[in-house]
Amino acid sequence: MKVGIIRFPGSNCDEDAYHAVVDHLGAEAVFCWHKDHDLQGADLVILPGGFSYGDYLRPGAIARFSPIMQEVVAHAKRGAPVLAICNGFQIACEAGLLPGALLRNDHLKFVCDQVHLRVESIGTRFTSRYHVDQVITIPVAHGDGRYTADGDVLERLEGDGHVVFRYVDAAGHVTDAANPNGSLRNIAGICNSAGNVLGMMPHPERAVDTQLGSADGLPLLHSIADSLMSEALV
Amino acid sequence: MSDTQTSSAVQPRPGDPEITPALIKEHGITPAEYERVVEMLGRAPTFTEVGIVSALWSEHCSYKHSRPLLRTLPTEAPWVLQGPGENAGVIAVKDGIAVAFKVESHNHPSAVEPYQGAATGVGGILRDVFTMGARPIALLNSLRFGPLTSPRVRYLFSGVVKGIGDYGNCVGVPTVGGEVVFDPSYEGNPLVNAMCVGVLREEELMLAVAQGVGNPIIAVGARTGRDGIHGASFASEDLSAESESKRPRVQVGDPFTEKLLLEASLELIRSGHIVAIQDMGAAGLTSSSAEMAARGDVGVTIDTLKVPVREEGMTPYEILLSESQERMLVVAHRGREREVEAILARWDLEAVVIGEVIAEPVYRVTEGDRVVAEFPGTRLVTDCPTYVIDSVESPVLAAARARNPHDVPPLPEEINPMWTLERLLASPTIASKAWVWRQYDSMVRTSTLVGPGSDAAVMRLRGTDAGIALSIDGNGRYVALDPLVGGRIAVCEAARNVACAGARPRAITNNLNFGNPTRPEVYFQLKNAVAGMGDACRVMETPVTGGNVSLYNENPQGAIHPTPTVGMVGVLDTLEHVTPSAFQRAGDTIVLLGDNTDELGASEYLLHLHGLAIGAPPACDPVKERALVDALLHAISHGHVRSAHDCSDGGLAVALTECAMMRRDAQFGFEVDLTAWADLPLRALLFGEAQARVVVSTDQPDAVLASAAQFGVPAHIIGRVTAADAGVEFLVGDVSARLALTSLAHAFHNTIPDIMNAGAAHGDTASSSSIS
Question: pLDDT tens digits, residue range B381-422?
């Protein structure tokens, strides 16, 4: 598996994604520069966290116009996997790869913390290595992470099993206290209707090593690798 | 660029104000200093030259009242690669990996514009570190505010925290530790000290030394605007009612540009195209160009018409003194200008040649063909006078120290020591600062092994199996009541904190926050605090590799507590024994390293419960502190210590309770028997702040006692860790006190959020009250 990590001006989780993929998953990774049109043959594209273009205008609003994003959208349209984390999730929403939007946190402050997520769907290519209703620990770090979408979109996401992660307490219960940003229905991560683009505010690339507090993000990377492997075998 | 002009060509610019005694005074230059300038130049200075001198000879840039004292500090050790005098200090860690680090204050700007003041403080210290060729990996900060009961203080506190968070979060450098203290002495004059640590390979070290006649001088990064003009001089005078009107002297930060500049600068340094690089920080273009020239002992000439500006019609005076942020000054190898421009262009930044290194020994500024300023040799930097002031201790503070804390009658409720303990845990200085650090990204770069909320942060370093532990500490009340002892404690407490994490203390950076040094009582504090820090650094073998001095921290209500803060870097040779502060397992034995004494003076107990800053601070013997550190590290490195937490604010009772409930997700109880000290006054035993003490939990108490004995450190088994529902229990002779953990944990964890949420509901704003 070859992973293309998109580097926008202001990306700052690009190296963390690189280390997660190379050091912990053992796969190959390359950086793809925002001014280029070249995904360098990547099987998986990661849109990393950070503050692309300084979050000017609104998070992700400028990054979607980068030259490289034309290639990312084409890659997604081909059905190839895209993992959009934090600012990457915001960019993916702005670019129309995912429905809905990320608004300012309800308490209006940046929040950095380890949070609990419940895996809502193991039928995606991103979550096959988890089990149903598994509670995992993954950090969040964002100021604009309040997921919102209109009622129809939410119903469709829920009905199709495309709500992938939800903020919960340690026991796995959906509570207001467990929701770090006011996201509707405690939604932490969703995928698109084709199932090949995952957007999530929590940072799985920061949870790949128990030394850092959690390795619960690693099965997500392994799930993607599995899915690519089985595609290759078909 | 011509280098044939001579000093006789220097002419006042048309439209320059006349040089009058009033103008000189307005620039903070004394009559004697003015005479010195005239003697140096052999003529009267031009308006532009007055501006240059006012910046470079400001306290902030020249250290004129502190330099003779700073010279007494130890600065060398085999592991020190770069000591004071550069943009940051550098020490070797292991395997060719080194760390660069420095602390800097942004007190005055934060007092009038907390958000931008704090944000640009972070920006400046980041640049000081990456200009050394180091990639920033950690930020810490030390903050002081007045009591949170004041709406204005809440506005300053929340603005500073947001400013720090927004800047560091955006640049992608984790904020991993720090301290926040609330005390009435900082009400009108908050302190904002920011520390940055970066990592580099030893051979990548870059210095800010201009060299090579004919080499181009290049302005890099953001354009120069009219913001922050005279920031350095503003930081060198007392705050007053007029300070609000100096808000335009506060710079405006843009962390996005900083992130681009960071990446571009590191690429430039690694490219081999450049000779030297320095942040255009305090006093902007003037100080960066003059200091780089002085370090290389070369001449330079700068043409202000070539400097990229944000607006039309800026004068040389404004261009030279602007403190617009996110700018660097670079000396490149001649002929590599295109390559430098190309690297900057990749990051959408500008690089413009604005001058060159010249053979003639002068510091020259031109505006096109007109010479607007010229100083001989490097005398602009080297000729600034230094001052040694007669020092006298303030009789008020001496009298406060002489008061006996035991003369203070306890409050009726103190009959129950658990009531007192709960009150202390609800002191904002002691209470959890999670409300603060949840707003900081402490995990980006995936190297934070121990983040905020512990005694020290621990970072792993890629490329080696070693790590570093970081802490920043200072107690202004101790220093006010006894500057010599307070200075020692600042260093020893920081050393204890990194040792508790399992790291050997290696070097410090310090930030000296004091009042007006021309007052003998303030100079007394400065002199003795520096002497105390020097004592402790020598014994601890932690040289001072650089730092910052912030004087004139006064407002109409008076001076702040003298507050030296110490940023300590410790090294862990392996990551096998990274040690947490909090208890880990019920059933573990609790060992106290160090001894309990009857020392209640200068305590948080007296301040928070009785509103008093009185009594002598606890004694501090650096030799005992060193032995404690050695014993603790011996026990940790042999795998005998499960947790270690330093006793500081609030004393032993608070330290034990913090070990039990500082982590919301893993709480414990404990039972301790302190009958061995039943002859001490109970409140001194529980809440006195005797130094050189650490609370250790272990499953091998005999081994810990043996380590202590080996280094001659007193050690006692005082109890054991229990389950959270057992609560906390103290036994002292006939006195037994017990309380459920929940109420103590509630006080500790909810105090600051409750105050800030209530304040937000009342709409705390800048106009809640103004500096008066």
Answer: 888 999 999 999 999 999 999 999 999 999 999 999 999 999
The two structure tokens encoding residue A202: 């929590």
What pLDDT shows up at residue A60?
94
Closest CA to B541 of B500, B494, B510, B506: B506
Distance (Å) of CA B170 to CA A19, B123, B158: 20, 11, 18
CB within 8 Å: B442 and A112: yes
Number of A:B CB contacts under 8 A? 83
User: Quick one: average pLDDT of A143-154?
Assistant: 98
Flag whether the ipTM exceeds 0.95.
yes
CA distance B377 to B101: 31
- Indicate which of B173, B444, B460, B756 best probes the interface with A, i.e. most A CBs within 10 Å of its own CB: B444
Asked if residues B142 and B178 have their Cβ atoms less than 8 Å apart, the reply is yes
Q: Are B128 and B281 in contact (CB under 8 A)?
A: yes
State whether A211 and B449 contact (CB < 8 Å). yes
E strand segments, B540-611: 544-550, 554-555, 558-559, 563-572, 589-593
Q: What is the DSSP secondary-structure string of A33-60?
A: ETT----TT-SEEEE--B-GGGG-SSTT
Nearest CA in chain B to A87: B170
The closest of B430, B592, B448, B568 to B498, measured between CA atoms, is B568
- Write down the H helix ranges in B322-431: 337-346, 379-382, 395-402, 417-425
The letter for the amino acid at B207 is L
Q: Are A139 and A207 in contact (CB under 8 A)?
A: yes
Residue B569 has pLDDT above 90, yes or no: yes
Indicate the pLDDT class of residue B244, thresholds 50, 70 and 90. Answer: low
pLDDT for the residue numbered B234: 63
Contacts of residue A65, Cβ cutoff 8 Å, sequence gap at least 6: none
Q: Whole-model pTM above 0.90?
A: yes
Question: Hey, is B686 helix, strand or coil?
Answer: helix
Residue with tokens 């109970």: B682
Q: Which chain A residue's Cα is nearest to B264?
A: A9
Report d(CA B521, CA B561) in Å as an integer.
Answer: 12
Distances (CA, A) of A34 to A21, A71, B170: 20, 10, 18
CA-based nearest distance B434→chain A, Å: 10
Contact assessment for residue B672 and residue B729, using Cβ atoms and an 8 Å cutoff: yes
Using an 8 Å CB-CB cutoff, list chain B residues near A10. 170, 256, 259-260
Domains in chain A, ordered, with CATH?
Answer: 2-233 (3.40.50.880)
**Neighbouring residues of B56: CB distance < 8 A, sequence distance ≥ 6:** B62, B283, B286, B287, B290, B380, B381, B384
Distance in angstroms (rounded) separating the CA atoms of residues B709 and B156: 48
Q: Which residues have a Cβ under 8 Å from the Cβ of A94 and sit 6 or more positions away?
A: A58, A59, A60, A61, A63, A64
Number of H helices, E strands in chain B: 26, 28
Backbone angles phi, psi at B650, to 5 degrees: 95, -10
Contact call for A51 and B169, based on CB within 8 A: yes
Between CA A225 and CA A220 the distance in angstroms is 9
Beta-carbon separation of A10 and B170 below 8 A: yes
Residues of B in contact with A141 (CB under 8 A): 169, 441, 443-444
Nearest-Cα distance to chain B for A222, in Å, is: 19
pLDDT band at B1 (very low <50, low <70, confident <90, very high): very low
Helix (H, G, I), strand (E, B) or coil at B404: coil
Q: How confident is the model at residue B27 (pLDDT cuts 50, 70, 90)?
A: very high
- The torsion defined by the Cα of A71, A72, A74 and A76, in degrees rounded to 10, comes to 160
> CA-CA distance, A66 to A80, in Å (whole number)?
20
Q: Give pLDDT tens digits for B259-312.
A: 999 999 999 999 999 999 999 987 889 999 999 999 999 999 999 999 999 988
